Amino acid sequence: MTRDSAQATGEGEGVVIERIFDAPRELIWRAWTEPEHFMRWYGPKSMSAHTCEIDFRVGGRYLYGLRSPEGFEYWITGVYREIVPLERFVSTESLSDADGNVVPPAHYGMPGDALTEMTTIVSLEGAEDGKTKLTLRHLGWTDDAMSAGAAGGWNEALDKLEALLPDLS
After folding, report:
1. CA-based torsion, 101, 97, 54, 26: positive or negative
2. Which residue of 5, 13, 63, 78 is surrounded by the most CB atoms within 10 Å?
3. C-alpha dihedral over 132, 40, 53, 126, to 10 degrees?
């Protein structure tokens, strides 16, 4: 399996994406952990984040709201399980309503066997010339098509992050 800055691969029941950003690790960390930055890039290219609440501490919760161009909204919530500053964080991820209450995947038209809770692991490593290697693991997908869709959405979001970086420095 070859992974580079543009690849996403299904790995078991999840998605693994590795990407090199031409930015220091501190900047990438801020883009993931500060609501005002996160909501500017999170979500597939056709969607925009309209709400972002982050309580970035172990046991803290987050809530993101996304909107499609047609006005369809969906919500994602979770809890931070592990944080190693500037290196890694692990969080749960569940679909929710606007109040952060977990809803079954069927609420958003997903198959009934989709998991109610998944895991996201974001790792950052310094790379040469001041760049940062990001490894994203989104674990818990039970269906290959849904996993491929998640990989595509994450890559679109990371493209948005890459385009935003000059504005964050």
Report:
1. positive
2. 78
3. 0
- Provide the angle, in degrees to the nearest 10, between the axes of the packed helices 25-33 and 144-168: 120
Which phi and psi angles does 90 have, rounded to 5°? -125, 135
Give this prediction's pTM. 0.89
Task: Kindly list the domain boundaries of the chain, sorted by start residue.
Answer: 8-168
Contact present, 74 and 102 (Cβ < 8 Å):
no
Cα–Cα–Cα angle for 157, 163, 169, nearest 5°?
115
pLDDT mean for each 10 residues of the chain (169 residues): 37 83 97 97 96 98 97 96 98 97 91 84 96 96 86 96 92
CATH 2.60.120.10 is the classification of domain 8-168: no
Q: Which two tokens mark 141?
A: 């997908």
List the one residue out of 80, 28, 29, 34 whose CA is nearest residue 57: 80
Write out pLDDT tens, residues 75-107. Answer: 999 999 999 999 999 999 999 999 999 999 889
